[in-house]
């Protein structure tokens, strides 16, 4: 699409549309109506009745999506009570990670479980965030949080210790690329609360260190009563000296 110079913009502009619908968009811009096949009526009906796949507009390619760790931890039938009766749907919670410091979870609801799972997977991919790891295998320090009546303590462990924790915690840590850690869950072991509480301490978001989850929650990262130490402080205590080898 070419835009000639105007009074407000003295320079000519050019817009290039690149997407899976490029041909259809260009055809609509040129003729003002979409292209129809021989059975145009049936195609229109399919467009009205059919729905776009939740995975159609993800920022990753199909090959990249296939390489991600995907764990559907919760799937259940839910019911909404209305004035005219009950509406039954399917609910799914999916945890997605690349096994190298990126992890996220998503929730989806639909009439059919496969589509609800796809919605949850798409939301989890968009919600993936970085997790701080020590030596790319464990967490930096003890972390503690409480969500509702679920109380979790996550501790770093030495090389070869493995993951000894709640099954739901195990899947989340595996997707995040954490190989050595232990966790204890007290109180309610409701899978939904366990997963959300764990993500609250793993992903700092935009909250300052040791200042909770950013919403006033008790997701503080603890180290003997003090805030989370930085990498330099931990390395100094272990008798090491950090050298910056970057050349830029």
Structure characterization notes:
With 248 residues, the chain is an alpha+beta fold. 27% of the residues lie in helices and 25% in strands. It is built from seven helices and ten strands. The strands form three sheets. It has a four-stranded antiparallel β-sheet. Strands 7-8-10-9 form a four-stranded mixed β-sheet. Strand 9, helix 5 and strand 10 form a beta-alpha-beta unit. Residues 37-49 and 206-216 have low confidence and may be disordered.
From the N-terminal CA to the C-terminal CA, the straight-line distance is 40 Å
Radius of gyration: 24 Å
User: How many DSSP E strands?
Assistant: 10
The helix/strand class is alpha+beta
Helix content: 25-40%
- Assembly type: single chain
Secondary structure layout plus pairing:
Layout: E1 2-3, E2 13-14, H1 22-31, H2 40-49, H3 62-66, E3 69-82, E4 85-97, E5 102-110, H4 113-126, E6 129-130, E7 143-147, E8 150-156, E9 163-164, H5 167-176, E10 181-187, H6 191-202, H7 231-237
Parallel strand pairs: 9-10
Antiparallel strand pairs: 1-2, 3-4, 4-5, 5-6, 7-8, 8-10
């Amino acid at each position: 699409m070419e835009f000639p110079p105007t009074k407000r913009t003295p320079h000519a502009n050019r817009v290039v549309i690149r997407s899976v619908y490029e041909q259809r968009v260009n055809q609509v811009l040129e003729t003002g109506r979409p292209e129809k096949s021989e059975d145009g009526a049936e195609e229109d009906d399919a467009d009205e009745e059919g729905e776009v796949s939740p995975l159609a507009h993800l920022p990753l390619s199909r090959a990249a999506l296939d390489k991600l760790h995907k764990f559907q931890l919760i799937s259940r039938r839910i019911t909404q009570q209305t004035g005219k009766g009950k509406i039954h749907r399917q609910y799914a919670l999916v945890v997605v990670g690349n096994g190298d410091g990126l992890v996220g979870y998503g929730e989806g609801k639909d009439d059919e479980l496969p589509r609800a799972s796809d919605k949850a997977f798409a939301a989890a991919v968009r919600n993936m965030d970085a997790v701080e790891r020590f030596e790319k295998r464990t967490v930096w320090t003890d972390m503690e949080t409480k969500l509702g009546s679920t109380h979790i303590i996550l501790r770093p462990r030495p090389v070869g210790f493995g993951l000894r924790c709640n099954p739901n915690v195990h899947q989340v840590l595996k997707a995040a690329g954490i190989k050595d850690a232990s966790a204890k869950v007290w109180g309610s072991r409701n899978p939904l609360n366990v997963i959300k509480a764990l993500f609250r301490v793993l992903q700092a978001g935009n909250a300052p260190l040791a200042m909770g989850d950013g919403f006033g929650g008790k997701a503080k990262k603890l180290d003997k009563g003090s805030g989370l130490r930085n990498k330099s402080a931990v390395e100094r205590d272990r008798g090491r000296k950090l050298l910056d080898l970057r050349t830029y």
